[in-house]
Specification:
- Pfam families: FHA, FhaA_N.
- It comes from Microbacterium betulae.
- Keywords: Phosphoprotein.
- By secondary structure, the chain is of the alpha+beta class.
- Helices cover about 20% and strands about 35% of the residues.
- The strands form four sheets. A six-stranded antiparallel β-sheet has the order 8-7-17-16-13-14, with no helix packed on it.
- Helix 2 packs parallel to helix 4.
- The radius of gyration is 23 Å and the shape is elongated.
- The relative contact order is 0.16.
Amino acid sequence: MGLLDSFEKGLERAVNSAFAKTFRSGLQPVEIASALRSELDKKAAIVTRDRVLAPNSFTVRLNPADAERMSALGSALTNELDEVVRAHAAKQGYSFPGPVSISLRTDDQVAAGTLGVDSVTAEGRVEWRAVVEISGRRHPLAQARTVIGRGSDADITIPDPGTSRKHVEVLWDGRSAMVRDLGSTNGSKLDGRQVAQSALANGQVITIGRTDIVFRLVPLAAPAQRVPRDDAATELYDFRGGGR
């Protein structure tokens, strides 16, 4: 299922069926999603071999009639658009310099059935908190070394007889993480593969015994600072003819 298909299905869940008549003609919500996705692809810039920077602050400009129709969806629409942008960036390997923000604005200069997208790179001070999820519960990694196992002397104790008293440790220095097996009896796995030690990425799953441990990085971001207007990028999208 494509991202836009997912968007449309999510939108159906998010809005009342009374809105169905509103979108039988004219600009469609999925077209806004398509424009944002295209904006990401066009403005993404290679910074290093491992980092592709994409704009993270978007203003969608709409004709007053289209804007009024979209406003009926309220926050449901912007929430879905936010998910589309994040999902597409993750799929393409893009990085954001700060929190993602999307706003819809009325613009008399935009023709009905079209839209304009202004995108900027907005820096934000982002702090990352490392956590592990075990059986739906999050455990913050408040120290550089966190030992996990069934023993009462482990930092995080799990009631799994298939694990050793001190089974694995997770190392976190505030920027990067590593998992290391502590000579356990049954070994440890990372994303299903046996591992002695390995770097940890957001979302990877450590398995010890029958217990899955999900490593996550949770952003704690301050409000973004927008770059000057002369660095902003503007794109116009015309869906009446299927082109720009």
